[in-house]
């Protein structure tokens, strides 16, 4: 027999709870072959106006853990930065506090990333969303000036770790402060090629919403917009099944 669609009337606001209870009951009785889809039709809209989207810049070495148009919950993992390992044998020469400042032009065609020492005192106006012009200072001290007109996308505190190789060359690693062990990675420590410098970092969603991913040269941008859901048929559930005494007793109870 072919499955047909039926409509169940229930209390408005309890549609999803009853849907989940039905699915659990169907699985417990082992009659999945008699049922098809169970739907609570909804209209979903992205909230692009009343609240700003959660925004992340994703560079090529990072991995996006979600798909475009996927709905996520607050606390879901969305981006993963990889582990960092020593490229060569060497000794840690210095570890300093740095700040990454990422700037893009208003048309989003060009970008510039600055790595400035915290000791240079980042200007108070350097914050995400702020407009900036060519020639404006990024720090109170030192020769750190913006080279393009645009907008600050994000700033991030980092640790700059310099490893001096045995041949005198230097390898520089920019790591997130919470991803390395300062008891192990400290000035004077000798590293071997492949030694772990920093753990992977996972970024979690701060809100419930829907994922949108845009691609640009050298990077991707992940946004999460809050969504609003409206029941198209309040108080009704649509169920696909083969109607007989067994399925009817499961549904009506």
UniProtKB/TrEMBL annotation:
One of its GO terms (cellular component) is cytosol. Pfam families: NusG (PF02357), NusG_add (PF18298). Residues 2-253 form the NusG-like N-terminal domain. Keywords: Transcription, Transcription antitermination, Transcription regulation. The keyword Transcription applies. InterPro entries: NGN-like_dom, NGN_dom_sf, NusG-like, NusG_add. GO terms for biological process: DNA-templated transcription elongation; transcription antitermination. This is Antitermination protein NusG. It comes from Kosmotoga arenicorallina.
């Amino acid at each position: 027999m072919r499955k047909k669609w039926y409509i169940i009337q229930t209390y408005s606001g309890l549609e999803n709870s009853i849907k989940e209870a039905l699915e659990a009951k169907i699985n417990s009785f082992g009659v999945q072959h008699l049922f098809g889809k169970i739907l609570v039709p909804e209209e979903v809209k992205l909230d692009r106006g009343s609240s700003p989207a959660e925004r992340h810049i994703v560079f090529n070495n990072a991995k996006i853990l979600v798909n475009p148009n996927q709905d996520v919950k607050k606390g879901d993992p969305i981006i993963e930065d990889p582990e960092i390992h020593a490229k060569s044998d060497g000794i840690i020469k210095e570890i300093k506090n740095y700040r990454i400042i990422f700037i893009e032009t208003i048309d989003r065609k060009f970008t510039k990333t600055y790595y400035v020492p915290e000791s240079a005192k980042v200007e108070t106006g350097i914050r995400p969303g702020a407009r900036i012009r060519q020639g404006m200072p990024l720090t109170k001290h030192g020769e750190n000036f913006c080279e393009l007109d645009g907008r600050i996308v994000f700033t991030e505190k980092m640790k700059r770790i310099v490893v001096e190789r045995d041949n005198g060359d230097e390898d520089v690693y920019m790591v997130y402060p919470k991803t390395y062990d300062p008891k192990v990675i400290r000035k004077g420590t000798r590293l071997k090629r492949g030694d772990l410098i920093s753990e992977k970092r996972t970024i979690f969603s701060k809100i419930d919403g829907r994922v949108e991913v845009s691609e640009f040269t050298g990077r991707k941008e992940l946004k999460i917009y809050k969504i609003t859901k409206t029941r198209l048929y309040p108080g009704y559930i649509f169920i696909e099944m083969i109607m007989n005494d067994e399925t009817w007793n499961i549904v009506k109870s």
